[in-house]
Amino acid sequence: MFLISTRFQLSLSFLICVFLSVSEARSVSNDYQDQSDREKKITDDTAEYLRSYGAKMKSYMNFSVEPCDDFYEYACGNWKQPQRSNHKENNMHSIDYSLAVITEQLMTRTQLAEALNVSDELLVTQRFYNACLTAVVSPLPAADPAYLSLIRSVGCFPAVDGAAWNASKFSWFNMSAHLTNYGVKGLINDNILHDYPFDPYFKLPDWGYDHIVHKDIIDNSSSRAYKLNEDRMRGYLQAFNLTEEKISAVVAGVFDFWREALSIEDKFEGNEDMCIDMHEVPRFSQWRSYFEIAWNGLHFDEEEYYYCDYYYDELDKVCAKHQEAVANYLAMLLLYRMESSVKDEKYHKEHCLMQVQTTMVHLISKLYMAEYFSEETHSEISGLVKELRKTLRQELENAEWLDTETRREALLKEANITAHIGSCKDEQLTDTLIRQIRNLSVVEDSFAQTMTNLRKFGVSLRRYNGLHYKEIPADSKPLELLVGMQPNAFYFNMDNSIYIMAGLLHPPVYHRSWPDSLKFGTLGYLVGHELTHGFDTLGSTFDGTGQERNWWSKKSEAVFQERAQCYVDHFSNYLIPEINHKIKGNETKDENIADAGGLREALAAYRSHMKQLQKSGENNETLTPQNEQMPGLDLSPEQLFFLGFAQLWCANYEQEDYWEELKNEHTSDKYRVLGAVSNNEDFAEVYNCPLGSAMHPKSEKCRLW
Prior knowledge:
Layout: H1 6-22, H2 28-60, H3 71-76, E1 89-90, H4 94-106, H5 110-115, H6 119-134, H7 145-154, H8 158-161, H9 172-180, E2 189-192, E3 200-203, H10 215-218, H11 224-238, H12 244-263, H13 287-294, H14 309-321, H15 323-338, H16 348-359, H17 361-372, H18 375-398, H19 404-415, E4 418-422, H20 427-435, H21 447-462, H22 464-467, E5 489-492, E6 497-501, H23 516-533, H24 554-572, E7 575-576, E8 581-582, H25 589-616, H26 637-647, E9 651-652, H27 655-661, H28 669-678, H29 681-686
Helix pairs in contact: 1-2, 4-16, 6-16, 9-13, 9-15, 11-12, 12-15, 16-17, 17-20, 18-19, 18-23, 18-25, 23-25, 23-26, 24-25, 25-28
């Protein structure tokens, strides 16, 4: 039994209190009255919370739009959030702000820190936070001597250095390598693999600052992309009191460099993976310098690397022609990395809390798990995961297109999935990471130097496993999985496991008082999404032990690929009018498959759960439609289920956000909602959508599982 209703919780609490009161020499009737008063208050508080949250959900909706015409607009048309930063905001980000408030509270828990033996680390964290609160964080004081000193220590800034700029001593590659130590993804866009030995891998660079620059928009000086990037560079250069003529020349030089650098991509002839080495060229000679600079000289098995040698050979030629522009671009990228991105001073404290929450992440998470993550919550979420796994298993059993042997392998894989609720536990490694905080230097009279130290510290933490791979077990997990206080969930192919992190369990994903219909539509869908990743086009290449192996028959695999292609074709037809580009269906197919599977599994699990409750006869009052609805919303339980799913993805987009997400494996929020519901037969039935309506098209619906 799980997802225990408020009424059942109160009954259980009541029984415990009565039992204790009998053993005490005092009036049982008085105890009963006290308990009754407490029960009434909790019930009243819950009812008020549900009314309030129902009103919030209703305020997001646009009732002038029919749900069958555009379910995203119906669910989210009036969702508006203050633009706190230069990045996209969606409803899921509200969890980040909830966790920021909790972070502030946790930094006062000195007794808890003492009990957990992290007092020294909490003290350093408090010192950084206080320094951040009193600093000027917006706009960035770009001309601070500490920033200029840092730029010169890793490279140069010709626009500011003037006659002292020496092109013969400049290496664009070495400066880029140094910048990765501060989290700057410039001309070396490095990331860390999620399996042992946790070595780096590389993607092609993104160009620009506030707006990713694409070849088809860079030549239009009146475009938003051009203006945002121009304004960003001008702001930095003006801080150094350069003349208008000089500023214009520097900005023009950077744009000229971008244009030629972007033209290299044409030579990849539209290949999906533009890092395929299409030409017979030798290994790009400078990679060894990257490992000397960024990984303390550590060298991994070079045969495993995918360096895009042809790309970097071509980029080297372009950089040689634009040396001064490249140096200026990289110098300003470093300043951009130090930016707070807050749009208003009223978000100053929130920004500082976010820095603590995302950098001292293992410390804050340890405090959070001790203070906020209860065994009751763990039990409830564990029960929900079990329900979702049952429905996934039923789908695998009922997939008629699977042959017997492939079905056996699929069911074996599902049976071997390991579920982690809250976080992955590795106390020894977690404590080691927390101890690293002692190495963070907070410079009392220079916040610029403190921020520099913080950025470098954050990168060293992210690289910790790779830097120490010879000292850690080969079965060590990625460090992300140790952080319970993050609003995320994962499926990990390497060991066939699913992770539901404790930080995810906040509205709009979860609240214990919600009706089950809403819980399954939000958290249930996300759990199903992650489970489905085990059986998408990537997950299906791994078996139940996490080994990469082809366990498919040729016949079943052919049908699998045909069904997956349906998602590619469907999403590739969505045009984003704001940028006049279509969704990249092939790049986003696995996330779209996971959305569709997660939504279908979650509704099936909800229906199964309700049938179990009815059959058991327990808690019958909670089974009425009214108790499965949200006060103030005239929706059936299953309509509420779909509304909860859609409202996870309510978002405010600027033009640059659409461009950025074109390079993302996730479809833009609006279209992931529309794509999921328009391929869901149950949605059309629940909202009574006529065949041929936008959300119930006549074309055959995509379904993998």
